[in-house]
Request: fold
Amino acid sequence: MVRLFRRRPVSQTISVALQELGKQYAYLKAVLGRLSSRDKALFNECESMIRKGNKTRAMVYACELAELRKLIKTVKSAQLAIERVILRLEMLREVEAVTRDLRSVLDITQKVAVELSEVMPEAALQLSEMNDIVSEVLSETVLSSNPPITTVALETEEVKAILNDAVKVAEERLMSTIPEPPETPEPKPAPIKGAEPIAVSATYEEKAAEEQNGNHTFRDVLKDSFKPDYSSPLIEKWVLGYAKKNMGEIDVNKCASELNILSKDVLKALESLHLKGKIKIQT
Reply:
């Protein structure tokens, strides 16, 4: 039978196949993107129905989502199969280049062996042995248009080792892109300077206080001043300022009158300042 057209080289055939497989892979990738968007939308609707208490509609969305995910799984499997075929064809293209180089070497050595057979029989013999080795390599190298594709076996130890190495490399690259936080020195606690208490001499007239505080006696006011509910910080600040202004001499009733507060509030403030160590009441 006479061939009308020249046979296409193996490398060119592989390149055409890789181009067509690349188109199919891109198409499946686009389909997978649309299905993933649909998956997200159905999941959001299902979650919304659950929050609204509509279990029936939530079940409908859940069933549709389950069927959609089966389809996504099928598309991913097809995409993975095409990707594996592409990798296998790329490897065959590299092997074909090597075998082509070996064939050219074999042709040259055969010609040289014929020319040296009459002049240098020993060299011709060695070249013949090398030709036999190259021929054996070429005979064992088979380029098949239908390479066997096995299922992905993640259970094998070799595949697990490769995946673990890939995970480690990915983690190292991720950590290298994350900047290290700056080292901040631990703040040293500032030394607490104890304020020297102000010596305060307080005088208190019970009759005047009764007019201001009602029927409370001096003993009642002092009793109230020792309760845990001390005066507000603002009143303490006023009383402390008043004590500094009057050189530590405080007339409780006069202080209460000038500050427009009750005498018992002044006593509470004095007691609180005394407990805090800001003043020292002299008896």
About this structure: The chain has two domains: 10-146, 198-281. The first strand starts at residue 198 and ends at 203.
